[in-house]
Specification:
4 helices, about 15% helix, flat
Length: about 150
Amino acid sequence: MTNMGRGNTGDWNIGNNNTGDWNTGHNNTGNNNTGHWNTGGVNTGDRNTGYFNTGNDNTGHWNIGNRNTGFFNTFHPKEVYCFNKPVDYDEYINAQFPKWLLSIQMVEAIPTDPAWERKKGKPSIFSVQQLLKKKDFKQACREAFSKATPEDIE
């Protein structure tokens, strides 16, 4: 019943911002995760999604290794897919991506509070009701690209 760390929800967590029970590390969601940013349960490592994964960046269940997708994989893939084409992982990790990719916004906040315009310039008023609208991925990319400077596109 005791948590060690800050921002934990659940029981017996060690670390910060964990949701669920018996997590060790930070920002885990689910139960019995060890490491950071895991979603699911009984994952060991970082950034795993699913259950019973060991290693980093796995999606699925019962994977051992890094960057596996699916079930019962035991190796480290040498390729990743970018734009539906296989790319050597080392080339991908060392690639220079254009800065405009970092400005893609998949969610748009739409104010619903009629007093929004009055509150906007007053930092002492911080509670504003909003709806979150999910954007289409391709449309979000087009919007980000259209707002980019020439330096952001290089």
